[in-house]
Amino acid sequence: MAARGTTRRIPEKDSTIACVQCDGLAVMKMVKHCHEESTSNMDVAQGALLGLVVDDCLEITNCFPFPKQQDESMDEDEYQLAMMRRLRRVNVDHFHVGWYQSADVGNFLSLPLLESQYHYQTSIEESVVVIYDTQKSSRGFLSLKAYRLTPQAIEMYKDGEFTPEALLKLKVGYENLFVEVPVTIKNSALTNIMMSELAELIPEEEGSKFLDLGTASVLEGQLRCLMDRVDELNQEAIKFNRYQQLVSRQQQDKHRYLQKRAQENASRVAKDEPPLPEEDITKLFRPHPVPPRLQPMLTAGQINTYSQHISQFCSQSLAKLFITQALQNAKEQNSSP
């Protein structure tokens, strides 16, 4: 396993895919599916990505949703194979290049996602997972990001040891668990012409939305989720500190037991008596199970994601809130007698 044997050389970076290029049709199908699931039953929307690999660029040209888990009569693997066969018959790219999943206020980093991407990436080397944020996109900011597991994360999950020693040996942390791949959206020339014509029909804004607080709900949701994840990480830290205290107390008890036994053997030898028989220390002092560190690492990564989203997306909202608060206070002071 990871904690035993010779040290293996693991590449620091994943150079298989440098960029992801999505067709407008595939993006619209993902957006439609994710919003339908989020508004109807608040389920996580998932689907397959189809496309081709050209040099170091992954081109996503089509996609289709996975069947719902409630439908037990349909096998997911058979459904995917049937869909790809039908797409092949109509001359559509049918090569499986990854999968997509919806997210709510950036909440996507979890054990199921890690396990699914590991299986995808070990079977299809160029596969990616595309995360679409429904909350952020509904406020007018398209959030479409592609991620891949790093070589260290793949090696960690393959070994199956999530102890602090194994993670330290592989140099795996939340900051290098996933790597983000740049995503670009490409449309045909006719689509670009139509979008240019539609843009001319939209009336120009006259600067009346500088203090629009429409993104305040997204900021509130991300701050609440951030507090929840901080509480979870605090609970995990308490568990690990308790484990360290138990190990330290056990080491002290073992040391005292060995000293006492050595003194008894010395006194027995002085009395020409045979020493006490050897005992297995590990049976008397059984080692405490090491708490796995994978879930705390994912929680720390989710906290980092929330922090980045808040600093990038919600900094303007915070400034607007402070400005409107100052205007409200000034209005109240002027209206008071």
Give your account of this protein's structure:
It is built from eleven helices and eight strands. The radius of gyration is 28 Å and the shape is flat. Mean pLDDT is 80; it is low at 1-8. Helix 8 runs antiparallel to helix 10. It has two domains: 19-200, 3-Layer(aba) Sandwich (Cytidine Deaminase, domain 2); 219-335. With 337 residues, it is an alpha/beta fold. The chain has an eight-stranded mixed sheet. A hairpin with a 2-residue loop joins strand 2 (46-54) and strand 3 (57-65). It has helices at residues 24-40, 76-89, 111-123, 134-138, 151-159, 164-170, 189-201, 216-270, 281-284, 294-313, 315-335, and strands spanning 19-23, 46-54, 57-65, 96-103, 128-133, 144-149, 178-181, 183-186.
Which terms summarize this structure?
Cytidine Deaminase, domain 2, 2 domains, alpha/beta, eight-stranded mixed sheet, Eukaryotic translation initiation factor 3 subunit H, protein biosynthesis, cytoplasm, 337 residues, translation initiation factor activity, MPN
